[in-house]
Automatic annotation (TrEMBL):
It comes from Rubripirellula amarantea. The lineage of its organism: Bacteria, Pseudomonadati, Planctomycetota, Planctomycetia, Pirellulales. Keywords: DNA-binding, Transcription, Transcription regulation. Pfam families: HTH_18, PBP1_XylR, Peripla_BP_3. PANTHER family: LACI-RELATED TRANSCRIPTIONAL REPRESSOR, XYLOSE OPERON REGULATORY PROTEIN. Residues 283-381 form the HTH araC/xylS-type domain. GO terms for molecular function: DNA-binding transcription factor activity; transcription cis-regulatory region binding. SMART domains: HTH_ARAC. InterPro entries: Homeodomain-like_sf, HTH_AraC, LacI/GalR-like_sensor, Peripla_BP_I, XylR_PBP1. This is Xylose operon regulatory protein. It comes from the Bacteria.
Length: 395
């Protein structure tokens, strides 16, 4: 009989992203060889645990977030897969969420709602936070806007320090123009921002719209108002990491050595459910398109809801939104198609019907024009990528 592999998991359980990683690892294990798992609670960014130095298992999946942990892991003689953005061990196989893509989704989410003022609230101790900040700031700047930045003190230790940090955040929030769309580096930081907004009577989402990252459903629903959040592919990342480690423990080679997985999308809740468009007719049109885009509407249907001629409407819409009304209708339909391809097993004909297309042939043409790939191929590639782990190659 083959000896059961013993695998260590140096992954905290205190946040939604890490729990998603663990869920994906568990999913892979249940579908393949069962491993004996060693998991001890670890604080994010903490010093290396005492057990790690003498760990003699068959493999390790770790969030290598600081030099201290990296220095200990370098002494281990076993296959290792890194699931941290810090990249402290470049020669170790690595899989993580694409932070640039997270920033892109966040920026598009705010722009769809008409925002022209942007801000980012992050933590300098974590590389993933800084990567999201840099990408978000670049996108805002390239679009001709400015981005206000707030870097939180991640380790206040005394009550006085906590009060001072809260006051510093409050001064920053009060200084922002209205309305501003804020991307917080993750949901816990967004919750802290919401608490300060409530204390200082800053209206969310009317004055400040707030978007988190991780889609911690319990935390997001407990927030007041409920928090919108970017959903990363944490489960899929965990599966990919487990697949990589499995190949390594069997003597195989992982190609490529590193991989970034795309986030799943933005889950919209009340904290960003607002339109920051001063033009009332265009705001009304955008809201109508958002609510009815999958009902087979066209530009004439939108015109029936506002007191503008077609030429005036289209010129003002293009100037404010950056797309024509027809382009906005198609864009929102395509986004709905994409989500149904990923989240359901519906045939293309039913997806076309649900998304307001005359037939699936027309939908396929529109989808390919927007995504550079046919819908059936898009669905197949997504599922192959997240299920079969093509980056892990056996010897």
């Amino acid at each position: 009989m083959t000896k059961q592999k013993t695998v260590g998991l140096l992954i905290e359980t205190s946040n939604a992203y890490a729990r998603g990683l663990l869920s994906g690892i568990a999913s892979y294990i249940h579908e393949h060889d069962l491993w004996s798992i060693y998991l001890i609670e670890q604080e994010r960014g903490a010093a290396p645990p005492s057990w790690l130095k003498d760990w003699d298992g068959d493999g390790l999946i770790a969030r290598i977030e600081n030099d201290a942990i990296a220095n200990v892991i370098k002494q281990l003689k076993m296959p290792i897969v890194d699931v941290s953005a810090a990249r402290k061990m470049p020669k170790v196989p690595w899989v993580e969420t694409n932070d640039t893509a997270i920033a892109q989704l966040a920026f598009e989410h705010f722009r769809e709602r008409g925002f022209e003022h942007f801000a980012y609230c992050g933590e300098s101790d974590f590389q993933w936070s800084m990567q999201r900040q840099l990408a978000f700031e670049q996108l805002v700047t390239e679009a001709g806007f400015t981005c206000s930045l707030f870097t939180a003190n991640t380790r206040p230790t005394r009550m006085l320090s906590l009060k001072r940090e809260r006051l510093r955040m409050a001064k920053w929030l009060l200084s922002l123009p209205r309305p501003t769309g804020i991307l917080a580096c993750y949901d816990i930081k967004a919750q802290q921002v919401l608490d300060v907004c409530r204390e200082y009577e800053i209206k969310v989402p009317m004055e400040i719209a707030l978007l988190g990252v991780d889609n911690d459903e319990l935390l997001c629903d407990l927030c007041t108002p409920p928090l919108s959040s970017v959903a990363p592919a944490a489960h899929q990342t965990g599966r990919e990491a487990a697949a990589m480690l499995d190949v390594l423990m069997k003597g195989g080679v992982v190609k490529p050595l590193s991989k970034l997985l795309e986030p799943l999308g933005v889950v919209t809740r009340q904290s960003t459910d607002v339109l920051a468009i001063e033009d009332p007719e265009i705001a009304s049109a955008v809201r109508y398109i958002r609510d009815h885009c999958c009902e087979g509407i066209n530009v004439n249907d939108v015109l029936k809801t506002i007191p503008l001629s077609r030429r005036v409407f289209e010129n003002r819409f293009l100037a404010i939104v950056g797309r024509t009304p027809h382009q906005e209708i198609i864009r929102r339909r395509i986004e709905r198609v994409r989500r149904l391809l990923v989240e359901t097993n519906l045939p293309l004909s039913q997806i076309a019907d649900r998304c307001g297309f005359m037939n699936h042939e027309y939908m396929s043409v529109a989808f390919r024009r927007a995504m550079d790939i046919p819908p059936a191929t898009y669905r197949r590639n997504i599922r192959k990528h997240y299920t079969n782990s093509p980056s892990a190659e056996s010897p």
